[in-house]
């Protein structure tokens, strides 16, 4: 064999037996390309109580009873959390802590939080039905979801007793989800994912990328993202703007635009896949998610 033939033979043998390093850098993964199977909706600020007013007014009242006035803005900062956790988080806001210190000569403690939560429960139960009107577009969006075969789940920072009032009032107006989970029924409420995951168990739906979470609060959007679901933030109908429908409709156009822009940014910055005004705009997001699932995209 001459030198040329020897070289050619070496090259062809290398081509037939690729080195290990050439084949190892690849991994293959399963991809879900089926339809949406469940939409998990929040309650206040999503399906009823435009502006998420009911809890906000009661947080203001329980602090007032402790001679520590708080603003509606301060009351709304932790919205979405379990209500006892919410009361505690308000007590950790610097301005509120300073006011508490001035009034009581010390900082708020766990006993104070327990006492305020004990005040909160009956006050909230007494006024919930005053704020339980369905948000426009809820019935239409839910009807379309049902037509497509999606199960309807729901999550809430309200206690079981409180959300039972919402469920009763919702049913009277024609809205009845297939599953409702309260923050009190899982190890931890928002932003933890457990309420969303409990809905999946209740509804027997899977995989997680076939589920969509819809919420008006930042902890509620985080709940959806932490659970691995597609997540839709509602900028106008809930806590981020915090105005009842009438008051929102009466705002001058420039103020509306300013508030809407800020709310959209807050939802987008926390990672929501979609941000819309209210549940009335949900169906086009579901269409887009269906298309993305078919292409093999994941949340
Ligand atoms: Mg809400």
Summarize it.
With 299 residues, this protein is an alpha/beta fold.
Structure description:
The chain has a 6-stranded parallel sheet with strand order 3-2-1-4-5-6, with helices on both faces. The protein has helices spanning 3-16, 53-65, 72-76, 83-91, 94-104, 110-127, 138-147, 160-172, 194-203, 218-226, 245-250, 253-269, 282-294; strands at residues 38-42, 151-156, 181-182, 211-215, 230-234, 274-276. Residues 1-5 have low confidence and may be disordered. 42% of the residues are buried. α2 crosses α6. α8 links the parallel β2 (151-156) and β3 (181-182). The protein has 299 residues and is an alpha/beta fold. The chain has 2 domains: 38-52 and 133-294, HAD superfamily/HAD-like (Rossmann fold, 3-Layer(aba) Sandwich); 54-129, Putative phosphatase, domain 2 (DNA polymerase, domain 1, Orthogonal Bundle). Magnesium ion is lined by residues 42, 44-46, 52, 216-217, 220, 238.
């Amino acid at each position: 064999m001459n030198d040329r033939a020897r070289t050619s033979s070496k090259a062809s043998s290398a081509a037939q037996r690729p080195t290990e390093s050439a084949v190892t850098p690849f991994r293959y993964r399963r991809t879900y390309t089926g339809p949406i199977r469940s939409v998990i909706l929040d309650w206040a600020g999503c399906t009823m109580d435009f502006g998420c007013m009911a809890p906000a007014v009661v947080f203001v009242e329980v602090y007032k009873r402790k001679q520590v006035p708080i603003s509606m803005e301060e009351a709304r900062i932790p919205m979405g959390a379990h209500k006892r956790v919410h009361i505690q988080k308000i007590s950790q806001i610097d301005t509120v802590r300073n006011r508490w210190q001035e009034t009581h000569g010390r900082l708020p403690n766990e006993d104070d939080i327990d006492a305020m939560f004990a005040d909160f429960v009956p006050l909230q139960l007494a006024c919930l039905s005053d704020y339980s009107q369905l948000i426009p577009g809820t019935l239409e969006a839910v009807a379309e979801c049902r037509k497509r075969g999606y199960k309807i789940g729901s999550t809430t920072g309200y206690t079981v007793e409180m959300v039972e009032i919402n469920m009763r009032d919702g049913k009277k107006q024609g809205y009845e989800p297939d599953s409702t989970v309260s923050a009190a029924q899982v190890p931890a409420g928002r932003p933890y994912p457990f309420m969303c995951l409990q809905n999946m168990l209740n509804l027997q739906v899977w995989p997680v990328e076939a589920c969509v979470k819809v919420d008006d609060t930042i902890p509620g959007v985080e709940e959806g993202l932490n659970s691995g679901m597609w997540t839709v933030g509602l900028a106008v109908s809930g806590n981020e703007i915090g105005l009842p429908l009438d008051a929102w409709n009466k705002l001058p156009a420039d103020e509306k635009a300013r508030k809407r822009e800020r709310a959209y940014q807050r939802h987008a910055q926390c990672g929501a896949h979609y941000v819309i005004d209210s549940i009335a705009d949900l169906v086009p997001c579901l269409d887009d998610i269906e298309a993305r699932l078919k292409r093999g995209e994941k949340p």
